[in-house]
Amino acid sequence: MIQQLAGFAPAPVAARMENHGNHMLKVAMQTGNDLLARVGSMVAYEGFVQYEPNPPAVRQIAKDWMTGEGAPLMKCSGDGLLYLSDYGANVVVINLNGDAISVNATNLLAFDAHLTWGVERVKGLAKFAGQGLWNTKISGQGWVALTSRGKPIVVDCGGGEDETYVDPDALVAWSPNLKVKGKRSFKAQSLIGRGSGEAFQMAFSGQGIVVVQPSEDSTDRLRVRG
Fold first, then answer.
1. Model pLDDT for residues 23-52, shown as the tens digit of each residue
2. Can you give the residue range of the structural domain that contains 134?
3. Is residue 219 part of a domain?
4. How much is the pLDDT for 50?
5. CB-CB contact of 130 with 108 (8 Å)
6. Close Cβ partners of 65 (under 8 Å, ≥ 6 residues apart)
7. In a domain, 12, yes or no
8. Predicted local confidence at residue 184, as pLDDT
9. Is 225 exposed, middle or buried (0-12, 13-18, 19+ CB in 10 A)?
């Protein structure tokens, strides 16, 4: 039986963050290199790892948040291996090399605690959603793990004049330097099924990428703050 299960054992550590399969994140924990992770995402760990929900650094930023904005986070510290997941969602690991990414808080699984982060308004959408939509921007040198409901597609906007249009309910993350605007359209066929008759898309242009998941789960998407 042990031999039959040997294929599921984790591979030797090769990086700070790695995928174990498509749906689990493996983090190599070291003292002094803390991690911020989604509350409740820990499924297993080896060694000595401590958890602190809603640490001071998170509370300080949360003073400017309204209900529903941002993901509930816990600080993880110690030495060992930490395994995280989010209800079987696909895990995408990104190594930031001094750049930045804007993430839908629903899709944020974990990131290095030393990275610069905060909640920012998505420019160009205020007239479509009251005071606008808000996202979590993370920047610096370090690791970030995102989740996707299914295998995502990464669209390179290419820096041309053509715009890339995305359903907000399928949006995971994008390059913060991209220009963003909203677009509304009304078509008869959108009255069929889940549609309300009015379709809203986010249009991206410039140099950068957009990460899109094959799901339109609107239970907790980009947040509107009035």
1. 999 999 999 999 999 999 999 999 999 999
2. 17-212
3. no
4. 95
5. no
6. 119
7. no
8. 73
9. middle
Pairing relationship of beta strands 133-148 and 223-224 according to DSSP bridges: antiparallel
Residue 222: what pLDDT? 43
Name residue 203's beta-bridge partners: 165, 181
Residue 56 pLDDT: 74
Q: Which residues of the chain have pLDDT under 50?
A: 64-68, 130-132, 188-189, 191-198, 220-226
Q: How many CB atoms lie within 10 A of CB 62?
A: 15
**Residue 131 confidence (pLDDT):** 41
Report residue 113: phi and psi, to 5°.
Answer: -65, -20
3-state secondary structure of 155: strand
Dihedral sign, CA of 90, 155, 168, 214?
A: negative
Spatial separation of the C-alpha atoms in residues 15 and 17, rounded to whole Å: 5
Number of domains in the chain: 1
Nearest to 220, CA basis, from 107, 93, 76 = 107
CATH of the domain at 186: 3.60.160.10
Q: Do the domain assignments include residue 197?
A: yes
pLDDT in the model for residue 199 = 66
Quote the distance between the C-alpha of residue 32 and its chain's center: 24
